[in-house]
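Ligand: zinc ion. Inputs:
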Amino acid sequence: MREYYTITELTREFGISTRTLRFYEDEGLINPVRRGRTRLYRPSDRHLVRQILRGRRLGFSISEIREIIQVYKAPPGEVGQLHLMIQKIEEKRQHLRQKRRDLEDTLQELDQAEEACVERLAELGVKT
Amino acid sequence: MREYYTITELTREFGISTRTLRFYEDEGLINPVRRGRTRLYRPSDRHLVRQILRGRRLGFSISEIREIIQVYKAPPGEVGQLHLMIQKIEEKRQHLRQKRRDLEDTLQELDQAEEACVERLAELGVKT
DNA sequence: CGATGAATTGACTTTTACGTAAATCAGGTG
DNA sequence: CACCTGATTTACGTAAAAGTCAATTCATCG
Ligand SMILES: [Zn+2]
Ligand SMILES: [Zn+2]
Ligand SMILES: [Zn+2]
Ligand SMILES: [Zn+2]
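Predicted complex:
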């Protein structure tokens, strides 16, 4: 496991721009350390980036992603906070389950559409 | 099955604005019929709206949704077109499968985060 | 017929998530 | 040192997806 990644290494690995990484930092999603003025990304920062991009692909907004990231962080020390966090986690799970339903439904519609195509081809006497 | 829905019925059912429905129409996603100037939405239009909103929740852009919707339509009559459509459907499926991976990964991270919270509570001697 | 309330249209505004350009700085190389 | 390459900062720009507002038109009910 590398100790540090430069900003360009991450842009290449994830196919995003430096602007994007700095934007996420500005939004408080990541906090790379600095050597002088240049940013050094730790493996944990890299992992966060991966999680952010996953969230983005799933259609979450930056602030929703921020909420999810809060949850990933070390659990708080206080009992009340812990219960609250567990509650929040459950809420996020609900959102994701809704997305999963949407996803399965869409996949099913695609299956139907494909079947219609295949049938149509069969009617035209074409071997699939 | 109702024959027609008014625009406000659909806005209430789906929790969206009339502006949104007209926007989707302007983008060529739906095509309600008209009685005079007022729009009448058929069950098939309503179904399309449902599919559009699903796509949106999954983070697809309007043009991606437009592509998906093309696929739902009646299959074309020509063999080449049919093969092309089947190919497109497969491509969409790939996108959705990526999203499903993202989704499962995120759910797993949430599980881990919750477990950490529960453990922490146990350490503090709290009954869950 | 006139009032009232829904529907339409068009113009303008807003928010999000970055892109892009310009100026500055830092470190290594010949 | 001069130069080059990369990174940073700041500021402004922009495209997508609506929201908002105002002016009109229609329908219909009393
Ligand atoms: Zn929520
Ligand atoms: Zn369907
Ligand atoms: Zn594609
Ligand atoms: Zn992880």
